[in-house]
Specification:
11 strands; 9 helices; alpha/beta; 4-stranded antiparallel beta sheet; disordered C terminus
Length: 261
């Protein structure tokens, strides 16, 4: 049976007087490819920041790999790729290889010489996102989608068990979005990396993700892709309203690992 990598229990969060998350209960299991969807201002980014330890918990608990987040130290198990394509300095003078190598800085130390095994690891990470032909190209010469693949390779080079991506297709042109998602699908299925993806693009990616969570302050739905696709239009539209109620969230995971997951 798969183990929970992230356990979120009764998490609520507020900025000054505004509640942005209310009573979130969500488990993410090893091998999952979870897409989190919701309108702007629905709390998606806040939830990611709580998972990454960038915000301090106000109420509830977050466990990573079975450990309370306040005690969790093994951050190299988690890779994070932010929305970067529209803000990256394209004049930055670094090759793809150098950018991906920087993902090993924490492990190696800032000025430690990179041995042959580490160089191979960098090239493998670049290859895993389909960018090996561009390894010695300056990153500023690449398209937004190619740059985003490079930043995923940078996150992968330290062998994370979990990869978190925040709207990774911002700045990726439409014709390359499908191949980008296909690459994520390969990372999940072939390399066995657990993926947590915040996206507005759920229609495009619903054949890739294994699970969907619909967030709009509350968690309105969490289930597998087949369950998500069986929702009717009125249920879907309620996720994006304000006076909404919890439609479906199964807190009992004892049947986890079954074919219907």
């Amino acid at each position: 049976m798969a183990e929970p990598i992230i356990e979120i229990g009764h998490v609520s969060y507020r900025y000054e007087k505004e509640n942005v998350l209310e009573e979130i209960n969500l488990n993410i299991y090893e091998g999952d490819f979870l897409g989190i969807v919701g309108p702007n201002g629905s709390g998606k980014s806040t939830l990611l920041k709580l998972i990454l330890g960038l915000l301090k918990l106000q109420k509830g608990s977050v466990k990573l790999f079975g450990q309370e987040i306040s005690r969790f130290k093994d951050w190299q198990k988690i890779g994070f790729v932010s929305q970067k394509a529209n803000s990256f300095n394209t004049g930055f003078p670094a090759t793809v290889f150098e950018v991906v190598s920087s993902g090993l800085t924490k492990k190696l130390g800032l000025f430690k010489f990179m041995g042959k095994a580490d160089q191979e690891k960098v090239l493998q990470a670049i290859d895993s996102v389909g960018m090996l032909d561009f390894a010695w190209r300056n990153i500023g010469e690449l398209s937004g989608g190619q740059q985003q693949r490079v930043f995923i390779a940078r996150a992968l080079v330290s062998d994370p068990k979990l990869l978190i991506l925040d709207e990774p297709t911002v700045g990726v042109d439409a014709k390359n979005v499908q191949s980008f998602y296909g690459m994520l699908d390969d990372l999940n299925k072939k390399l066995g990396i657990t993926l947590l993806l915040v996206t507005h693009d759920i229609g495009t990616i619903s054949d890739k993700v294994t699970h969907v969570a619909c967030l709009n302050r509350n968690l309105h739905f969490h289930g597998n892709t087949a369950e998500f696709e069986s929702l009717n239009i009125s249920e879907m539209s309620e996720f994006y309203g304000h006076d909404v109620h919890v439609l479906s969230h199964n807190h009992d995971h004892h049947d986890h690992g079954g074919a219907a997951r």
